[in-house]
Amino acid sequence: MHGHGRELLALGRYDEAEERLLEALARARRIEGPDHPSTLRTERSFATLRLAKGRNEEALAILESNVAATRRAEENAHALGTALALLGQALNALERYVEAEAAFGEALPLIEQALPEPHPDLAEARSHRGTALAGLGRFEDAESLLINAYRSLSTIEDLDPERTARAAGRVADFYGRRRDDAEASAWRERAHPNTR
Protein backbone atom coordinates (compact mmCIF):
# COMPACT_ATOMS: atom_id res chain seq x y z
CA MET A 1 0.00 0.00 0.00
CA HIS A 2 2.80 2.43 0.88
CA GLY A 3 4.55 1.87 -2.45
CA HIS A 4 1.34 2.38 -4.40
CA GLY A 5 0.59 5.54 -2.40
CA ARG A 6 4.07 6.89 -3.24
CA GLU A 7 3.51 6.15 -6.94
CA LEU A 8 0.19 8.01 -6.89
CA LEU A 9 1.84 10.90 -5.07
CA ALA A 10 4.58 11.09 -7.72
CA LEU A 11 1.88 11.17 -10.41
CA GLY A 12 0.13 14.08 -8.69
CA ARG A 13 -2.95 11.97 -7.92
CA TYR A 14 -3.15 13.35 -4.41
CA ASP A 15 -6.63 12.22 -3.36
CA GLU A 16 -5.91 8.62 -4.31
CA ALA A 17 -2.46 8.83 -2.74
CA GLU A 18 -3.96 10.12 0.48
CA GLU A 19 -6.36 7.20 0.68
CA ARG A 20 -3.60 4.63 0.10
CA LEU A 21 -1.13 6.29 2.45
CA LEU A 22 -3.69 6.60 5.25
CA GLU A 23 -4.50 2.89 4.85
CA ALA A 24 -0.81 2.00 4.84
CA LEU A 25 -0.10 4.19 7.85
CA ALA A 26 -2.96 2.71 9.89
CA ARG A 27 -1.83 -0.80 8.99
CA ALA A 28 1.83 -0.12 9.79
CA ARG A 29 0.96 1.43 13.16
CA ARG A 30 -1.30 -1.50 14.02
CA ILE A 31 1.06 -4.28 12.89
CA GLU A 32 4.57 -2.83 13.26
CA GLY A 33 4.04 -0.17 15.92
CA PRO A 34 4.40 3.61 15.85
CA ASP A 35 8.23 3.73 15.96
CA HIS A 36 8.95 0.96 13.45
CA PRO A 37 11.05 2.07 10.43
CA SER A 38 8.30 1.15 7.94
CA THR A 39 5.74 3.16 9.93
CA LEU A 40 8.07 6.14 10.08
CA ARG A 41 8.79 5.89 6.34
CA THR A 42 5.06 5.84 5.55
CA GLU A 43 4.54 8.80 7.87
CA ARG A 44 7.20 10.75 5.93
CA SER A 45 5.40 9.94 2.68
CA PHE A 46 2.14 11.19 4.17
CA ALA A 47 3.88 14.40 5.27
CA THR A 48 5.25 14.80 1.72
CA LEU A 49 1.67 14.57 0.47
CA ARG A 50 0.60 17.23 2.96
CA LEU A 51 3.38 19.51 1.68
CA ALA A 52 2.34 18.88 -1.93
CA LYS A 53 -1.24 19.87 -1.03
CA GLY A 54 -0.06 23.05 0.72
CA ARG A 55 -1.10 21.80 4.14
CA ASN A 56 2.16 22.94 5.64
CA GLU A 57 1.15 23.21 9.31
CA GLU A 58 -0.11 19.62 9.24
CA ALA A 59 3.08 18.46 7.53
CA LEU A 60 5.16 20.29 10.13
CA ALA A 61 3.36 18.60 13.04
CA ILE A 62 3.79 15.17 11.43
CA LEU A 63 7.47 15.79 10.69
CA GLU A 64 8.36 17.16 14.13
CA SER A 65 6.94 13.98 15.63
CA ASN A 66 8.60 11.84 12.94
CA VAL A 67 12.06 13.31 13.52
CA ALA A 68 11.76 12.65 17.26
CA ALA A 69 10.57 9.08 16.66
CA THR A 70 13.28 8.46 14.06
CA ARG A 71 15.89 9.56 16.59
CA ARG A 72 14.37 7.29 19.26
CA ALA A 73 14.27 4.35 16.87
CA GLU A 74 17.95 4.98 16.07
CA GLU A 75 17.14 4.72 12.39
CA ASN A 76 19.94 4.85 9.85
CA ALA A 77 21.54 8.14 8.83
CA HIS A 78 19.64 8.32 5.57
CA ALA A 79 16.24 7.97 7.28
CA LEU A 80 17.04 10.67 9.83
CA GLY A 81 18.51 12.92 7.13
CA THR A 82 15.38 12.48 5.02
CA ALA A 83 13.11 13.28 7.97
CA LEU A 84 15.12 16.40 8.79
CA ALA A 85 15.18 17.55 5.15
CA LEU A 86 11.40 17.18 4.93
CA LEU A 87 11.10 19.11 8.19
CA GLY A 88 13.23 21.84 6.61
CA GLN A 89 10.91 21.93 3.60
CA ALA A 90 7.87 22.37 5.84
CA LEU A 91 9.63 25.15 7.74
CA ASN A 92 10.59 26.83 4.45
CA ALA A 93 6.97 26.71 3.33
CA LEU A 94 6.03 28.51 6.55
CA GLU A 95 8.89 31.02 6.07
CA ARG A 96 10.57 29.86 9.28
CA TYR A 97 14.00 30.05 7.70
CA VAL A 98 16.19 30.01 10.83
CA GLU A 99 14.68 26.69 11.90
CA ALA A 100 14.74 25.38 8.34
CA GLU A 101 18.44 26.14 8.01
CA ALA A 102 19.12 24.32 11.29
CA ALA A 103 17.20 21.27 10.03
CA PHE A 104 19.08 21.27 6.70
CA GLY A 105 22.38 21.85 8.50
CA GLU A 106 21.84 18.59 10.37
CA ALA A 107 20.21 16.73 7.46
CA LEU A 108 22.73 17.29 4.69
CA PRO A 109 25.79 15.63 6.29
CA LEU A 110 23.63 12.57 7.04
CA ILE A 111 22.28 12.40 3.49
CA GLU A 112 25.73 13.03 2.00
CA GLN A 113 27.07 10.14 4.07
CA ALA A 114 24.33 7.81 2.84
CA LEU A 115 23.89 8.68 -0.84
CA PRO A 116 26.27 8.79 -3.81
CA GLU A 117 26.76 11.83 -6.02
CA PRO A 118 24.73 12.70 -7.99
CA HIS A 119 21.55 11.56 -6.26
CA PRO A 120 18.22 13.36 -6.68
CA ASP A 121 17.37 13.31 -2.98
CA LEU A 122 20.71 14.87 -2.13
CA ALA A 123 20.37 17.53 -4.83
CA GLU A 124 16.83 18.39 -3.74
CA ALA A 125 17.87 18.74 -0.10
CA ARG A 126 20.60 21.14 -1.19
CA SER A 127 18.14 23.08 -3.33
CA HIS A 128 15.70 23.43 -0.45
CA ARG A 129 18.54 24.52 1.81
CA GLY A 130 19.27 27.22 -0.76
CA THR A 131 15.72 28.47 -0.28
CA ALA A 132 16.28 28.66 3.49
CA LEU A 133 19.54 30.56 3.02
CA ALA A 134 17.84 33.01 0.63
CA GLY A 135 15.15 33.55 3.25
CA LEU A 136 17.91 34.46 5.69
CA GLY A 137 19.43 36.93 3.23
CA ARG A 138 22.51 34.77 2.61
CA PHE A 139 22.16 35.24 -1.12
CA GLU A 140 25.62 34.22 -2.30
CA ASP A 141 25.47 30.87 -0.47
CA ALA A 142 21.89 30.36 -1.60
CA GLU A 143 22.61 31.07 -5.27
CA SER A 144 25.45 28.56 -5.40
CA LEU A 145 23.42 25.80 -3.74
CA LEU A 146 20.32 26.40 -5.84
CA ILE A 147 22.14 26.47 -9.18
CA ASN A 148 24.42 23.53 -8.41
CA ALA A 149 21.46 21.46 -7.21
CA TYR A 150 19.60 22.23 -10.44
CA ARG A 151 22.65 21.27 -12.50
CA SER A 152 23.03 18.03 -10.57
CA LEU A 153 19.39 17.11 -11.10
CA SER A 154 19.59 17.93 -14.81
CA THR A 155 22.39 15.37 -15.29
CA ILE A 156 20.54 12.42 -13.78
CA GLU A 157 19.14 10.04 -16.40
CA ASP A 158 15.56 8.79 -16.16
CA LEU A 159 14.67 11.37 -13.51
CA ASP A 160 11.11 12.68 -13.45
CA PRO A 161 11.45 16.03 -15.26
CA GLU A 162 9.15 17.62 -12.68
CA ARG A 163 11.87 17.32 -10.05
CA THR A 164 14.28 19.30 -12.22
CA ALA A 165 11.54 21.79 -13.09
CA ARG A 166 10.77 22.38 -9.40
CA ALA A 167 14.48 23.00 -8.75
CA ALA A 168 14.50 25.54 -11.60
CA GLY A 169 11.41 27.11 -10.04
CA ARG A 170 13.27 27.53 -6.74
CA VAL A 171 16.09 29.30 -8.61
CA ALA A 172 13.51 31.54 -10.32
CA ASP A 173 11.98 32.36 -6.93
CA PHE A 174 15.44 33.20 -5.62
CA TYR A 175 16.07 35.69 -8.43
CA GLY A 176 12.58 37.08 -8.00
CA ARG A 177 13.38 37.73 -4.34
CA ARG A 178 16.56 39.50 -5.44
CA ARG A 179 14.47 41.56 -7.89
CA ASP A 180 16.51 40.30 -10.83
CA ASP A 181 13.59 40.01 -13.23
CA ALA A 182 15.64 38.93 -16.25
CA GLU A 183 17.24 35.97 -14.41
CA ALA A 184 13.93 35.08 -12.74
CA SER A 185 12.24 35.00 -16.14
CA ALA A 186 14.99 32.85 -17.66
CA TRP A 187 14.73 30.34 -14.81
CA ARG A 188 10.92 30.31 -15.00
CA GLU A 189 11.34 29.34 -18.65
CA ARG A 190 13.52 26.40 -17.54
CA ALA A 191 10.92 25.45 -14.97
CA HIS A 192 8.08 25.60 -17.51
CA PRO A 193 9.63 25.38 -21.00
CA ASN A 194 6.35 24.65 -22.82
CA THR A 195 4.29 27.56 -21.46
CA ARG A 196 4.77 30.53 -23.74
Name the average pLDDT: 94
Number of strands: 0
| CATH homologous superfamily label of the largest domain | Tetratricopeptide repeat domain
Q: Which ranges are low-confidence, i.e. pLDDT below 50, for 5 or more consecutive residues?
A: none
Alpha-carbon Rg, integer:
17 Å
| CATH topology grouping of the largest domain | Serine Threonine Protein Phosphatase 5, Tetratricopeptide repeat
Number of domains: 2
What oligomeric state do these chains adopt? Answer: single chain
Structural class by sheet pairing and helices: mainly alpha
Shape: globular
Please sum up the structure shown:
By secondary structure, the protein is mostly helical. The protein has helices at residues 2-10, 14-31, 37-52, 56-72, 77-93, 97-114, 120-135, 139-154, 161-177, 181-191.
Give an overview in words.
The protein has 196 residues and is an all-alpha fold. The protein folds into two domains: 1-94, Alpha Horseshoe (Serine Threonine Protein Phosphatase 5, Tetratricopeptide repeat), CATH 1.25.40; 115-196, Alpha Horseshoe (Serine Threonine Protein Phosphatase 5, Tetratricopeptide repeat). Helices cover 79% and strands 0% of the residues. The chain has ten helices and no strands. It has helices at residues 2-10, 14-31, 37-52, 56-72, 77-93, 97-114, 120-135, 139-154, 161-177, 181-191. α1 packs antiparallel against α2 (14-31) and α7 (120-135) runs antiparallel to α8. The longest helix is centred in the first third of the chain and has 18 residues, at 14-31.
